[in-house]
User: Which sequence fits this backbone?
């Protein structure tokens, strides 16, 4: 049955962090999302629809949580998303032939860490051990130079007004662009002064990795809720 | 037939802010900050059961609200209740939605509500005769066809009002799938009626993507229909009496040979020609190159032509005159027995021509990328 990729992503995020994820809960979800991958390589709202950055991120992230990312054609997905980085602006567009938008700094660029991890898990030997497969510096330039409101906050593109949504996703995208990998493989690329450096963000949940660990640990220690109604 | 906001920060005269000119409804902007909270509040009070509103008031209030802010889901939901209780004619909501879309062509809630209404309408047996008040009831097939056409118009207009209008094109696809049942006729009609539109909106990726959807659906259709046709023939040979029933049952989508015989290779070639023409006329639009890529890819993978891939007449290709123009070549090559394998050769020539004559940097880049893609694609 048709579901919204956003809902699936939210549900999968919550369920996995709180340790209530069961196969029954997401029966058929992964297959549905995979069916929404189209000839362009990205994911659309429903099967047959145009590939769209927002839906693609939510779909892919949900699949990563459900450990079913290999249902997708990762190669065409990679091809699609890398072509969404704009040659001149450095930022990303949401769909082919559309304008750049700061929020896609996360929705689109955020796909590269996910794809990187999936390909690595498959044993791909050609993967870089220091950089994501997009131009990290160019994206940082776009965000820092074009997406900041002088009064504070971030935005879509010059000329637009600031809002919380764009502030959130421009910063998230900036964090993705600055940090590659984690632990031993962590490699930073910070454009401009050191003060520009943000904390790394978890590419699936978009909160700091430490918070993800803490949440998972916390809920693992709780008893799993029963399906019976409370007495 | 259209609504809009008239920028007018102050009420200068003591008169109504509603302006109606040539069937277009305008509201002076100064009154919105009074009107919107007023109707909004009234509706919320009703919903919270603190203040009763009768059906006419509800219809008026929700109508006003939605023309000011069509993404107010609650208002659409109140109207759903009115429709289900038989008090409100669903066709009115289609009209209201259409009006709202003239000002808010993307409004997600409007499109969502529209699909709900259409679903109600096609289950017409469950609805009271409100819908056909006073008129002779049109045959269901014609009514549905009428609905589909109207939806195509609404989508087209909304797509024209906002570039790459994802929601409008999504809706269009949904209508074809659920109301139009993706019949060959509907798909072919849409292919021809959107041809002009995409030619005048060459950067509208959604529009071209729609054509890909149509072509792919036709591809899927021809395969299924050919299978069904074969099966029908087998069944009919065994049971002549069944044959008549099946033919009648098929209805408008008659199982006759001509209808099923969509010349798909020809369609794909036409699509490629369209792309080429547009690429030549409007250099530097990535959408057109993408569309070209995919169309060529389809023409290689379509079942109708894939069996020909083996019999490639390479000599015939090399001898073809390069002095003739692109379109001339296409027509001449078409007469050769093996059509699909000639596609790439023609494309190579086209690319080389573009690269040698274009002055637009983007165009050159797209052409080079396309060439690289062709090489990879053909080596598979």
Assistant:
């Amino acid at each position: 049955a048709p579901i919204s990729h956003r809902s699936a992503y939210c549900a999968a995020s919550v369920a996995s962090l709180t340790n209530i994820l069961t196969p029954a809960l997401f029966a058929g979800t992964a297959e549905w999302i995979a069916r929404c991958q189209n000839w362009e390589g990205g994911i659309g709202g429903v099967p047959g629809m145009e590939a769209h950055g927002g839906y693609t991120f939510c779909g892919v992230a949900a699949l990563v949580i459900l450990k079913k990312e290999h249902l997708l054609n990762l190669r065409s997905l990679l091809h699609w998303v890398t072509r969404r980085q704009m040659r001149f602006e450095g930022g990303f567009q949401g769909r082919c032939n559309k304008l750049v938008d700061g929020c896609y700094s996360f929705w689109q660029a955020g796909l590269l860490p996910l794809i990187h991890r999936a390909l690595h898990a498959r044993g791909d030997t050609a993967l870089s051990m220091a950089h994501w497969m997009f131009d990290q510096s160019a994206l940082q330039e776009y965000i820092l130079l074009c997406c900041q409101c002088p009064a504070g906050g971030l935005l879509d593109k010059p000329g637009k007004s600031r809002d919380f949504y764009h502030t959130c996703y421009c910063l998230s995208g900036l964090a993705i662009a600055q940090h590659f990998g984690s632990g031993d493989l962590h490699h930073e690329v910070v454009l401009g002064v050191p003060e520009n450096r943000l904390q790394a963000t978890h590419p699936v949940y978009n909160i700091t990795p430490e918070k993800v660990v803490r949440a998972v640990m916390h809920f693992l220690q709780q008893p799993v809720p029963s399906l019976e109604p409370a007495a | 037939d259209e609504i809009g906001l008239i920028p007018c920060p102050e009420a200068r005269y003591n008169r109504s802010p509603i302006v109606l000119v040539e069937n277009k409804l305008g509201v002076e902007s100064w009154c919105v900050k009074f009107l919107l909270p007023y109707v909004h509040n009234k509706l919320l009070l009703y919903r919270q059961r603190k203040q009763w509103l009768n059906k006419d008031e509800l219809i008026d209030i929700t109508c006003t609200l939605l023309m000011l802010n069509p993404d107010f889901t609650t208002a659409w939901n109140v109207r759903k209740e009115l429709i289900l209780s038989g008090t409100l004619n669903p066709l009115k909501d289609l009209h209201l939605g259409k009006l709202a879309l003239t000002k808010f062509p993307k409004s997600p809630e409007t499109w969502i509500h529209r699909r709900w209404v259409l679903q109600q309408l096609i289950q017409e047996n469950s609805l009271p005769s409100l819908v056909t008040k006073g008129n002779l009831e049109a045959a269901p097939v014609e009514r549905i066809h009428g609905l589909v056409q109207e939806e195509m118009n609404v989508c087209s207009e909304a797509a024209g009002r906002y570039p790459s209008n994802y929601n409008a094109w999504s809706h269009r696809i949904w209508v074809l799938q659920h109301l139009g049942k993706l019949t060959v006729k509907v798909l072919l009609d849409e292919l021809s009626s959107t041809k002009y539109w995409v030619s005048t909106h060459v950067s509208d990726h959604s529009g071209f993507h729609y054509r890909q959807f149509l072509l792919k659906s036709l591809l899927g259709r021809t395969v299924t229909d050919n299978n069904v046709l074969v099966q029908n023939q087998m069944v009919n040979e065994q049971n002549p009496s069944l044959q008549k029933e099946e033919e009648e049952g098929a209805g408008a989508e008659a199982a006759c040979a001509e209808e099923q015989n969509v010349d798909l290779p020809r369609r794909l070639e036409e699509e490629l020609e369209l792309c080429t023409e547009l690429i030549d006329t409007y250099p530097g639009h990535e959408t057109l190159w993408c569309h070209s890529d995919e169309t060529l890819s389809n023409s290689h993978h379509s079942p109708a032509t894939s069996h020909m891939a083996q019999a490639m007449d390479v000599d015939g290709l090399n001898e073809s005159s390069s002095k003739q123009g692109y379109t001339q070549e296409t027509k001449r090559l078409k007469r050769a027995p093996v059509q699909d394998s000639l596609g790439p050769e023609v494309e190579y020539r086209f690319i080389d021509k573009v690269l040698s004559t274009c002055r637009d940097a983007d165009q050159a880049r797209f052409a080079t990328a396309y060439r690289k893609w062709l090489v990879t694609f053909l080596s598979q």
